[in-house]
Amino acid sequence: MNALLTILSLLLVAFIVLAVPTIVAPHSAEYGMVFTFFDMAKAVMLCGVLATFAGWVFYRQREGGLFLLRIFVAALLVRVLLGTLIFMFNGRDFFGGDAIHYDYYGTAQLAAWHGDRYFNALMSVYISGGLAGAWGMLYMVAGIYALLGRNALAVQLVVAVMGAATAPVIYLCASHVFKNTRVARFSAVAVAFYPSLVLWSSQGLKDGPIVFFLGVAILATLKLGDKFSVKYLAMLVGALFCVLTFRFYVFYMIFTAVAGSLVIGMQKLTATSFARQFAIIILIGIGLTYLGVTRYASVQLSYYTRLERVQQSRQDASSSANSGFGREADVSTSEGALKTIPLGIIYLLFAPFPWQLASLRQSITLPEMLIWWASFPLLILGLWFSIRYRLRQISPVLIFTVMLSLAYSIFQGNVGNAYRQRSQLLVFYFIFVAVGWVILLEKREERKRRDLAEPEPLPVRIAASEVSRQSEVSSL
Fold this sequence. Notes:
Elements: H1 2-18, H2 20-24, H3 28-31, H4 37-59, H5 65-88, H6 92-95, H7 98-113, H8 117-127, H9 135-148, H10 152-178, H11 181-193, H12 195-200, H13 207-226, H14 230-246, H15 248-264, H16 271-290, H17 293-304, H18 307-319, H19 334-350, H20 360-363, H21 366-389, H22 391-411, H23 415-421, H24 423-453, H25 458-475
Helix pairs in contact: 1-4, 1-5, 4-5, 4-10, 5-10, 5-11, 7-8, 7-9, 10-11, 10-13, 10-24, 11-24, 13-14, 13-15, 13-22, 13-24, 14-15, 14-16, 15-22, 19-22, 19-23, 21-24
């Protein structure tokens, strides 16, 4: 396995550096530049440095280090290959048009850092007050461009590293809660290779970083629930702040889940554990305040929490494309928002439906949707088991997924958006799917062991033998 992954990595690197510049040349006008072999080499080198560090961290884990390294490398190769194909044929507008937006504003932010007055004024207005939806993504793109020069492929490869790293992070989360290698491995494999998760983390989009930082935040919370650690506290504060910069409203939900789970306690509550968890919450608050979260929150909460604003955003999403749904819904009141939840949940979990596959972009989602629909009963089974036997331990994941699912069910009015933003939930849903699958698998194995340990009663075996003997006589 190690040799195969190494060979595939070398072949992919050689292809990107030697062949991609020639293939992407016809699209130079769309990218606004001509890519050279040196540009490709720089992108691959940056990816290699980040991947080496991440692989080293995963390999050093006490439990399953080699598996984590292999699943990370395999997930990264899949993402790099798909991202390279999208880059070569300029498929950004088809698969994820936001990448064009981030490329432009990332370039503008870099120019502003270099003192350009026009772009400095533009970015000041865009980001001022924290109302920009993904200023962290713009800073990341600008930072990569400052290091390598304008290079869209480099952004895609950095996002691919984050997307691939999410699989081992989810493994560690599942292993920590359920202490079951099968559950952890199933979860990691699903996150590593599920098509939509691969797609959204293969491009210059914010989805990959968001899901990665959410996973890191949950993992750090689970570790802090056992014992205090400066390392995991720093990881948690950093991950929460990064989520804020990429998608601010998700930050408030993950912060609520983290704080709520620490208050409830993920282990048996004692005076010592209560004091530890209370201290952790205080330190998280101090850290986020130092990073300026309260300043952003005062603007964002007053502007975006009004139901009228949510209604305006939802109405625009449901009316601006053929894939809109629930156009008649009105979430500007509490009653209207509550009535929207059932339909919204159905679309969030199961859309797009077969009768909605009216274009190529929608049709290519059908194979993975069949897999997801088939696995949904396992999700319910795993969720039931987790709530019954692991409620405290799984509380961060449970609180966050429930809150975000309800929020998206209210203000999502477009099938495409619901399908894309479901990726932020799928990585945690797959933990419950894995639990359900392992429960069924272990029940099946238990039946086999019972059958081997307890053979059929003697009268039954005698009767079966007599029937077999009579059959042989009659055949003669």
